[in-house]
Amino acid sequence: MFNTQDYAQYVDMVVNYAAQYSFKIFGAIVIFIVGKWFAHKITLVSKKLMEKSKLDATLVEFSESIIYFVLMLAVIMASLNVLGVQTTSFVAVFGAIGLAVGLALQGSLANVGAAVLIMFFRPFKIGDTIEAGGAMGTVQDINLFSTTISPIDNRTIIIPNSKITGGNITNFSNKTERRLDLTVGIGYGDDLRLAKEILLEILNKEERISKDPAPFVGVTELGESSVNFAVRAWVKTEDYGDVRFAMLEEIKLTFDERGISIPYPQMDIHLNNKN
């Protein structure tokens, strides 16, 4: 039978536990909420200070994530301490778990190591146009595990950092000027001197092409079906694409007007009529 004395004993036990742990639980929750708020504010202040110092945007974003992670880890440990949990034992447990997770997530840890290399050696930064990891586009974001780039067609490509550092990285934005290289072929029956003169006229007429160093046109190959010219000129990096498209169009139109042919592959088929 459940008598009144036993009931009173259980009530006293619940009251004692509630009195003992409710304040700890409440304190832990308060510390977590307030600590998270402070961590967010401190991270924002640190980001603004780094931006005022004119640090690279890539380094600012990376440092911001690291600062917030470290502060939140400290907040969690403080909350556990208030609950009476021995955090020293948790450190050992986390160490064992970290080792197991590290072995299971070697690829992810490789991405973190690659992120550190990217931040340290700075092969590119946010806003640069690069070709790496099998993709080409403008760098939008760099985090601990991946780099996000956006190609010219406005897609989003997320590349693991280890794929980037494990191969060639081509940065198209770290130089103010870029050389435009075109190969233009003409027929063997066309006037070579006239074709060269036309190409130089087109290059010199384009205002976005640098005059120092001067544009260059020279015969680079006597091909199977065409005489090939190497056309080279220096342009500003941001004008490269537009100038390339404009030059190809202008060369074709001008050659048509001046009677210069541009050969294309052809196949002659001979049929033998057997009676």
Give a short synopsis of this structure.
The protein has 275 residues and is α+β, with helices and mostly antiparallel strands. The chain is 53% helix and 18% strand.
Number of helices: 7
Question: Helices and strands: which structural class?
Answer: alpha+beta
* Rounded Rg: 34 Å
Kindly provide the name of the CATH class of the largest domain: Mainly Alpha
| CATH architectural arrangement of the largest domain | Orthogonal Bundle
Helix proportion range: 40-55%
Spans of 5+ residues with little confidence (pLDDT < 50)?
none
**Strand content of the residues, in percent?**
15-25%
Mean pLDDT: 82
Q: What is the string of helix and strand elements?
A: HHHHEEEEHEEHEEH
Report the biggest beta sheet as strand number plus sense, adding barrel if it closes.
5 strands, antiparallel
CATH fold title of the largest domain: Helix Hairpins
Please count the beta strands (DSSP E, at least 2 residues each). 8
